Amino acid sequence: MEIQKLVTSKGFQTNTYIINNEIIIDPGEGVGQFVSKDHEFIVLLTHGHFDHILGLSEIKVKELYVHPLDVNLLQNPKENLSFLLDKPFSWLKPWKNISENYRVIHTPGHTPGSCVIHIGDYLFTGDTLFFDSIGRTDLPNSSTDDMKNSLKILKQYFKSLPRNTFIAPGHMRTGTLEEVLENNPFLKEI
């Protein structure tokens, strides 16, 4: 499996991942400069905030997968917060339930439909879990209580995984599961 990590969305430094030149996870603004305009991609979203979806307009989307609880964010600029940038963005085209087609752990907290996508030896954690932090829970539709519960579920899930499983978050640095468990204070508190 070939995985390319791109840092997109300028000021927001969103990690966008391309797998085997077929799948794009969280297409941030600017992703179009890294891919062929004629190539169709399957798109997987960890959640529906603007910094993870603005690149949708720059690529050919074959199929889009998102958790149903984040469809409202995808379709509404106020919900996905793109209106704050004076770049209102909404995706009103068809979408599919990511839970029915991919191996995901539903991790509400940052958004109601946040999820961690498990592909091969990689966990794409979006804004649920970073190398040494977690996603914000002070935004509209966020929940501190849901995030705490999601982190408990994730930590339990981690017990079934090899320590060299790769954690690929939506922002900042990547690392192995072992490194994240050692460096993330939020996981130590659980």
TrEMBL record:
Its cofactor is Zn(2+). Gene3D superfamilies: Ribonuclease Z/Hydroxyacylglutathione hydrolase-like. CDD domains: metallo-hydrolase-like_MBL-fold. Keywords: Hydrolase, Metal-binding, Zinc. GO terms for molecular function: hydrolase activity; metal ion binding. It comes from the Bacteria. Residues 13-171 form the Metallo-beta-lactamase domain. The keyword Repeat does not apply. Pfam families: Lactamase_B. This is Beta-lactamase. It comes from Defluviitoga tunisiensis.
